[in-house]
Amino acid sequence: MAEREHYLYWKLINYFVIEQDYRLIHIDREEKEAWLETVGHKKLDVIRILVQDIDWTNWLKRDIIQTGLRAAGIRKHLMKREVNVLNIYVTEHTPVDDYEHVIQQPYDTENGKARIQTVLMAKETTNDAIYRMNEMLNSHFQTQAMEIYDPALTYELRQSAIQKTKRRQREEKELFEYGKPFFTYLFIAVQILMFLIVESSGGSTNIETLIKYGAKYNPLILAGEWWRFFTPIFLHIGLLHLLMNTLALYYLGMAVEKIFGRFRFLWIYLFSGFTGSVASFVFTNNLSAGASGAIFGCFGALLYMGVVNPRLFFRTIGVNVIAVIIINLIFGFTVPGIDNAGHIGGLIGGFLATGIVHFPGKRKWGLQFVSLLATASAVYFMLNWGYHNDHPDTENARAQGQIENGEYGAAYETLLGLVSEGKGDADSYFKLAYTEAQLQKYEEAKKHFNRAIELQPDFHEAHFNLALIYNEQGDIEAAKKHAYRAVEISDQETYRDFLKEIE
């Protein structure tokens, strides 16, 4: 191969790496074939350059087909809908037989998902090939007909491209090794310590103990205990829950803290735990605890990396991260008892929190401002919705907290307002009747217990409480009727003992 072809080969690589910001991803041992991919958003995703004497068109056809197969593999690896490849041949002379029809039309594979456009740079076609390439790339590559092909210049072009590639590889490696984990270990230690404390104080599966130590419990949040948006991050329900979240935190937390540094990680983790608790507060009334929302926030931080630097993300950790997120979300939607609202809230919170602080040593003020605005708006909207939405579950939960605190008058006002507006459900009427019974408003209590039964005929607690009121008023037959019904629906020992007593 003549010196001209080697010079042109390295001049092309140098131009794409230095001026067009492509990344050199592969070069063969003989340094005759190079593959480059775009770092930014360009018309052509991948460029392949081959320096080779091409004698016959059949060889050219076969090589283009092989290039198409490799391009299809790159498309799948990058998880792109389609990939456009510029295939450049640097050769001394064109094939001896008719070849133009082979390179004039793009070669498509995978039903057009991988498209190969070919240019052939021989002595007699260089200018036309460069013009066509520049049109495809909207670039300004130039070479002169009388250019001197000095081996020293070729070596200089090679070194420049290789050094830029090595520098970029070093920067990418440093991106994954920015910080040394500290808070990951601290959070692991804290959640293990809290688990031992809760276990020794009544058990990590005991609802009363969990509430005592700060689990997410809507009635108490509505009563003003806002810190329950944060304390659940460090509590776990059962040993298996603790082990799974500790293992996830170890791997994910380490990765995120290394990439973003200690204090960015601290912000991302705690804010994600908060948004996970807020989402759980808004969408579920179940008691919940665990670091899952904060851990999903770590996933959100990695997804942010994928949005800002998709090429690096998908070339390294992207496919695995997305697969694990999808598996966890499917698991959460199909297995009962998992707080998927908290998971999704943490995932979104982690993404937004990362957008606010961006990467260490780098700034994107516009993106960071938009992230801050979106975060503030989302938190305000969700908290406003959680504290003031018209869904009866929220008011029922508020009233339940008031009842548990012995505030029957306050619970009565809360529930009466709810049912007066026509928004109450069976549980609302039951709780209202219960508070009325405590306030000795027996006629109103009977009316609302009956309304609860109308809305939910198998409401055995309502039947039992009606039986208690009728028995208190001396109407034994009515008491027996409702006690029998309570036993039929739910054969509980308390119900049976009461029925025997009044019989």
Counting structural domains, the number is 3
CATH topology of the largest domain: Rhomboid-like fold
Straight-line N-to-C gap = 109 Å
Average per-residue pLDDT, rounded, comes to 89
Principal-axes shape call: elongated
CATH homologous superfamily (4th level) name of the largest domain: Rhomboid-like
Provide a count of the helices.
22
Topology:
Layout: H1 3-19, E1 22-27, E2 33-38, E3 46-51, H2 57-78, E4 83-90, H3 100-104, E5 107-109, E6 114-121, H4 126-137, H5 151-175, H6 183-200, H7 207-212, H8 218-222, H9 239-260, H10 262-283, H11 292-308, H12 310-316, H13 318-334, H14 340-357, H15 365-388, H16 392-404, H17 408-420, H18 426-438, H19 442-455, H20 460-472, H21 476-489, H22 493-502
Parallel strand pairs: 3-4, 4-6
Antiparallel strand pairs: 1-2, 2-3, 5-6
Helix pairs in contact: 1-5, 6-9, 9-10, 9-11, 10-11, 10-14, 10-15, 11-12, 11-13, 11-14, 14-15, 16-17, 16-18, 17-18, 18-19, 19-20, 20-21, 21-22
Descriptive report:
With 503 residues, the protein is of the alpha/beta class. The protein has 3 domains: 3-175; 183-383, Rhomboid-like fold; 392-502, Tetratricopeptide repeat domain (Serine Threonine Protein Phosphatase 5, Tetratricopeptide repeat). Helices cover 65% and strands 7% of the residues. It has 22 helices and 6 strands. The protein has helices at 3-19, 57-78, 100-104, 126-137, 151-175, 183-200, 207-212, 218-222, 239-260, 262-283, 292-308, 310-316, 318-334, 340-357, 365-388, 392-404, 408-420, 426-438, 442-455, 460-472, 476-489, 493-502, and strands spanning 22-27, 33-38, 46-51, 83-90, 107-109, 114-121. Strands 1-2-3-4-6-5 form a 6-stranded mixed beta sheet, with helices on both faces. A hairpin with a 4-residue loop joins strand 5 and strand 6 (114-121). Helix 11 (292-308) crosses helix 14. The protein is elongated, with a radius of gyration of 34 Å. The chain starts with a helix and ends with a helix. The mean pLDDT is 89.
